[in-house]
Amino acid sequence: MNTRISRIGLHVTRGQVIGGSLVGMLLAAGIASAVHYASPLLAGPALTQLVITGRLEHVPPQAVQGAVRSALGSGFFTTHVDAVRAAVAALPWVASAAVRRSWPHTLYVEVTEEQPVVRWNGNGLMDDRGRVFVHSDDSAWARLPALNGPHGGEADVLAEYRTFAALLAPHALALRQLTMDARGDASLQLGNGLQVRLGREDAELRLERFVSVALPTLAAQLPNVAYVDMRYTNGFAVGYTPTCRWQVGADGKPRAKDGAAGQRTKDGSQTCSEPGVAATPPTAVANEVRLND
User: Fold this and answer.
1) Which alpha helices (H) appear in the chain, and where do they start and end?
2) Are strands 195-199 and 237-240 parallel, antiparallel or unpaired?
3) Which of 240, 261, 277 is a domain's end point?
4) Are 173 and 190 in contact (CB under 8 A)?
5) 129 and 230 share a domain?
6) Domain-embedded: residue 232
7) Which stretches in the chain have pLDDT values below 50?
8) 103 in the same domain as 155
9) Would you tell me the crossing angle of helices 81-89 and 61-71 to the nearest 10 degrees?
């Protein structure tokens, strides 16, 4: 089969080429000019007012302002609240942030600070989700229960702490410290300084046996008990602490050198105990700053 291909010649004059080029250039310039002048109009009015609210104690308003400024768009409509929220939430001590725009120039940011519930491995502060969000050596946090455990086991140790604390609460016993090693061996320190060793297996059952059997048995001796070891099938072991040791002062009077928490000195003038640390609760504040400051 033969196929014929027809070729149609196109004849374009020089003037037509020049004219077409000018039209194209004018059209491109018009589009660019329209985009240039339309962008600010489409972006809306600039956001120049920032209002920060929340119970702020550890998050400086200046830090929030800096995070907001870095996430701002060119105007009301081009500023994405999700981007602003993420920037603020990334700041230390911020648990969450709520962001909204108010026509024509105002951006509202509500900050919720982290609330530490326990200490982790010394100076780490952990929230109720098992997340260590900051490290602090401030002595004010010494009032919080202390958890110790392997890296990566934060959530698991916190869950065990809650279980043990719930078992102790009906007996008016506070859980001051929980230590779990890499093998899962658990050791507790109660609010009165008594140590309870639970081990790795059946820790909850052993703690229940401590409060139902060991505690009543040792009630009269508790001031002198250093630890109770519950890692036995049919019983428990008890370790006793020495009484206060003595040294004679320059005035010839005996003074306590050391001793167990809660014990009194021989002459009854002192108690061998550690002072507690009082914490100051945060106050509700509302901070207002200008974005162009």
Assistant:
1) 14-43, 61-71, 81-89, 154-168, 203-209, 215-217
2) unpaired
3) 240
4) yes
5) yes
6) yes
7) 1-12, 15-17, 19-20, 30-38, 246, 258-290
8) no
9) 140
